[in-house]
Design a protein that fits this description.
237 residues, Jelly Rolls, three-stranded antiparallel beta sheet, 9 helices, disordered N terminus, DNA-binding transcription factor activity, transcription regulation, Env_Response_Regulators, HTH_CRP
Length: 237
Amino acid sequence: MTLPSGIGNRLLAALPAADFDLLAPELETVALERDSVVSQAGDQTEHLFFPHSGAISVMVDMANGQTVASAAIGREGAVGTLSVLGPSPVAVTAIVRAAGTASRIPASRFHTAFGRSPAIRHAVQIHFKAMLIQFQIGGACNALHPVQARMARWLLQLRDRIDDDVLPLTQEALSQILGVRRPTVTLLMRNLRASGAIRSERRGEIEIDQLRLAEAACECRDTMRLELEDIFSTNLA
């Protein structure tokens, strides 16, 4: 079984056929349902997920119940790869924001293939680099940039992963992603609608104007996108 290059998950598609075949017997295609939790902070990793479509946000859960997103994952990445470093509770929660599909594999099976295949280890290292870029730039962005610019960045990051100007997001989901109260999101949405960056907001969907929204976003969106594309194009070509 081989995965054609350019189709499905980018990490899996980059593997040589012999290395992909180490994973293939254990891979199953599963639905990523919107708002479902694919990895819960505090749990052990039982499965790894390699999205083919859709988008997942990586959430940090605080002791007081607040949350904030630290990274976004689409078909370029995976959920659960840190488990290759050894057994330990998951530190973050991964929530599906846009429905899609993924290849799922038991963690124990992936770890076996990881130990046998330099190509799989290389793909995981590339994913680690990409996530580290998001954590570093995103951490600085959360600390230094206005919340409206951060919201515009997150909307564009989601748009980049699903390739659609209609985003399946509620204001409640945005408040969780940004770590702010719901009334703050309502005010920011009003501002972005007035500028034309958001064309419409229906129940559970936000339609954006990509160019105008980019004007409202901080530089972090473009910085992340260029850094990530450089990592993937250089190392997974």
